[in-house]
Amino acid sequence: MTYRLLAGTRVIESSAFIAAPLCGLTLAQYGADVIRFDLIGGGIDYRRLPVMPGGRSVYWTSLNKGKRSIAIDIRKPEGKELLRALVTAPGTDTAVLLTNVPSAFLSHQSLSAARPDLISCTIEGNADGSTAVDYTVHCATGYPMITGTGSREHPINQTLPAWDLACAYHAAFAVTAAVAQHRVSGQGAELRIALSDVAFTAMSHLGTVTEAALAMPERQAIGNDIYGAFGRDFVTKDDRRVMVAAVSARQWQALVQACALTEVIGAIERTLGVSYADEEDRFEGREIIAGLVARWIGARSFADVAQALDAAGVCWGIYQSMRELVQNDPRVSLNNPVFSDIETAGVGRHLAAGAAARLVDQERLPTRPAPLLGEHSDEILRDVLHLSDLSIASLHDRGVIAGPEQDPLTPGGRRSSARRETALVT
Amino acid sequence: MTYRLLAGTRVIESSAFIAAPLCGLTLAQYGADVIRFDLIGGGIDYRRLPVMPGGRSVYWTSLNKGKRSIAIDIRKPEGKELLRALVTAPGTDTAVLLTNVPSAFLSHQSLSAARPDLISCTIEGNADGSTAVDYTVHCATGYPMITGTGSREHPINQTLPAWDLACAYHAAFAVTAAVAQHRVSGQGAELRIALSDVAFTAMSHLGTVTEAALAMPERQAIGNDIYGAFGRDFVTKDDRRVMVAAVSARQWQALVQACALTEVIGAIERTLGVSYADEEDRFEGREIIAGLVARWIGARSFADVAQALDAAGVCWGIYQSMRELVQNDPRVSLNNPVFSDIETAGVGRHLAAGAAARLVDQERLPTRPAPLLGEHSDEILRDVLHLSDLSIASLHDRGVIAGPEQDPLTPGGRRSSARRETALVT
User: Fold this and answer.
1) For the CA atoms of A420, A421, A422, A423, what is the dihedral angle to 10 degrees?
2) pLDDT tens track for A330-346
3) How many contacts (CB atoms, under 8 Å) link A and B?
4) Which one from A38, A73, A164, A407 is the annotated catalytic residue?
């Protein structure tokens, strides 16, 4: 964990894919004790690409940093009971169940009989319980038709799972709001959050639902331009690409100054009777402005452009690949206290992020790696359920629990390493 | 507000653009009393597009639903003092300052002298205080080069401000974690959250930072395909477009069944020695699979496709424009309790979203519209600072406070309505 804000909160997580695990990760990095329940051998996303030559999933280990893992066979009635006991165990001030794979034996109703102040949070695809994933929600939002050169005939999906991210953080927020209430009133809560509701409510908050409901003109694809202000990508003389944004009037003034456009912009404004300090005029006149900026940037090297834009306080950024980001950008390096090097079993030593927020004057605690499956099975049963070593050994013997697994540490776990390596270069 | 989970929390918000106002909106919808401070006449995003013929911004009103507004001239020392007094006022159990426009007179240090248990949250572009917006962060993530048909030469920006959304909800979460701590310990906290840190930490959690750090092969643009599993867009016989996802093994089985592919897939698997139940093989074989699915979907009407996919439990979605979403999708309608009709001054009656989460067995309270600028100036000074009517009148007379404004209610506020109408059809 990075900070202890949520100390005293115990979360039992039963999850797969992105939104729910990232919600749990977020709670863990801000101080909750997040216990991830896993099937013996791993759940449906345990081997998701990309995977290391030894078979360990970089996807899974990235989303489960800093959690504890208990591996239980819930096909056995005793396994189900163990998991129910963990969720409803006393001994912590707030108990949370987080899941996106709801099942009857973990229903809020049945669990809250044992622990009336339980907070449960179920993340769903759609509110009616039907399946949806980021891709099948995004296609319905209208964004693919107006992304880049997108159209009805050639929609462009997003590669970033943006709705999963929004859902994860929104769910972490809602759970924490329930925790805050619990700390005052002792009340539990049953929360349900649908991925599609997160998407469509966000669109309402961004104004796009209202625009459409009021039958305002439909947004059109405008390439890489920023809607409603000025911003676009430009190429330098030495073929580097930058994104320049002039959303606020101050940002616009900085751009005009950096590119030495004061005189020509003044002449255009007087002639056309417009004022580019006004974002509406700036958006309308974006082709004219872009032509001038492109001319200035295209005549200079990246180094000169960067220096001039920075000197004037322009809001801009560089286009780079993920590898260039990690190799060259100080914001993704040990120079940024948000990042540190961690050692993940089966993956190796690598850069990893802790909590995104910084708490001034508070020490950041080390970022912990993802657990091995069942790494904390015994410890959790001792800590939380106060089982004896004898009982725990018996649960192992009868195959009710397992762990820690050894597979990821040695190449050739479930499948051969040669095969895994092939997959990596696909 | 929708729910009262955060009742007893007072947030003073000084903000512009998306991340900070959406953070405040989120806190408001879950029960905080969010008081938005505005400049008299409005801040830098008060007229942001799209705007109504009368001049009111649909963007601004969408992001500020359910907040109270006080309009203060902070160029006057007395205005600064009023705002400081509001932030540090006693009389509520948790006091929060939320801003993305930090200024010395609102520094945590100076305010916490008056209220040591203050929670402040500053949203920044970059952690060093330099400017960044969603677009200038996104270009640096590497995603534009692998979105759709994107490449280094032709990167594709996202139209959805995904990092702003993630930042808003992450900030709402972090603030609420600090509120939860405050309710146990009485401690305050100074939080700082950078948009770029939210983006890059999310990439670490999604595994992409680790992939790059370990020098795994760089991700390539794969059009509308889903990475690491199977999913793509397909066109029906009557030219409707659908997105089909087979991420889990169960989703894959459903797709095979729906499209009657059991026999041919079996033959291919035996011949090639692969197993498409394995997501890795499925991703590798995506062109073969897509060819078969395209043939099946392309031979059928949308109605038939929808029925067959639903009957088999396939995970799929429809591509539609924002207008079609609002007109046709029951998830964005009064049939979904997350939405209701509200009346916004200067905008009219329209569909609007409350909290995305649903609290089972708790009534959803009405979604309230955005305030007029300074609509609650007098009420807030009476409520929070216990000023007399005489003092409040004097503040009005001296131009320290204002409100409620009338502009948005009548056409031709700051600019002519004819001009606004032109803007709408740009």
Assistant:
1) 50
2) 999 999 999 999 999 99
3) 530
4) A164
Query: Is the preceding omega at residue B50 within 30 degrees of 0, hence cis?
Result: yes
Residue B164 falls in the annotated catalytic set: yes
Task: Indicate the pLDDT class of residue B419, thresholds 50, 70 and 90.
Answer: very low
pLDDT at position B41, please?
92
Q: What's the confidence (pLDDT) of residue B408?
A: 54
B162, A159: Cβ pair inside 8 Å?
A: no
How far is A233 from chain B, CA to nearest CA, in Å? 9
Q: Which of B406, B409, B401 is nearest to B35 (CA)?
A: B401
Chain A segment 293-312 residues within 8 A of B by beta carbon are none
- Whether A245 contacts chain B with CB within 8 A: yes
pLDDT in tens, B329-359: 999 999 999 999 999 999 999 999 999 999 9
Q: Could you tell me which chain A residue has the CA closest to the CA of B93?
A: A184
Nearest CA in chain B to A344: B210
- Give the C-alpha separation, A274 to A237, whole Å: 31
Nearest-angstrom CA–CA distance, A171 and A23: 6
CA distance B272 to B269: 5
Alpha-helical runs (H) found in A107-161: 108-114, 134-138, 143-146
Model confidence at A92, pLDDT cuts 50, 70, 90, reads confident
Task: Measure A209 CA to nearest chain B CA, in Å.
Answer: 7
Per-residue model confidence (pLDDT) at position A416: 34
Q: What are B84-96's pLDDT values in tens digits?
A: 999 999 977 899 9
Long-range contacts of B105-111 (CB under 8 A, 24+ apart): B105/B74, B105/B80, B106/B14, B108/A360, B108/B190, B110/B84, B111/B84, B111/B87
Percent helix, strand, coil in chain A (nearest 5)? Answer: 40, 15, 40
Helix, strand, coil shares of chain B, percent, nearest 5, are 40, 15, 40
A133 with B247: Cβ contact below 8 A: yes
Would you call A215 an interface residue with chain B, using a CB distance cutoff of 8 Å?
yes
| Residues of A (363-422) whose Cβ lies below 8 Å from B | none
Please report the pLDDT score of residue A216 as a whole number: 86
Nearest CA in chain B to A217: B425
The 3-state DSSP class for residue B424 equals helix
State which residue of chain B sits closest to A249, comparing Cα positions: B44
pLDDT confidence band for B393 (50 / 70 / 90): very high
| pLDDT at residue number A413 | 42
- Chain A hits for B3, CB-CB cut-off 8 Å, are 177
Q: What's the pTM?
A: 0.95
What span, in angstroms and rounded, lies between the C-alpha atoms of B34 and A14? 34
- Distance (Å, whole) CA A327 – CA A236: 21
Residue type, B6: L
SS3 A422: helix
Task: Give residues 264 to 293 of B whose Cβ lies within 8 Å of A.
Answer: 279-280, 283-284
Q: Give the pLDDT band of residue B25 (cuts 50, 70, 90).
A: very high
What is the ipTM for the molecules in this complex?
Answer: 0.95
Contact B356 A201 (CB under 8 A): yes
- In Å, what is the CA distance from A134 to each residue of A59, A145, A163, A238, B205? 16, 16, 6, 37, 16
Write down the H helix ranges in B273-400.
Answer: 279-284, 286-298, 302-312, 322-328, 377-383, 389-397
Q: How far is A300 from chain B (nearest CA, A)?
A: 18
What the block records as the tokens of A81 is: 């009971």
Q: Using CA atoms, how far apart are residues B285 and B276, in angstroms rounded to an integer?
A: 8
How far does the CA of residue B403 sit from the closest CA of chain A (Å)? 24
What's the gap in Å between the CA of A40 and the closest CA on chain B? 18
The label of the residue with tokens 């944004």 reads A245
> What are B269-286's pLDDT values in tens digits?
999 999 999 999 999 999
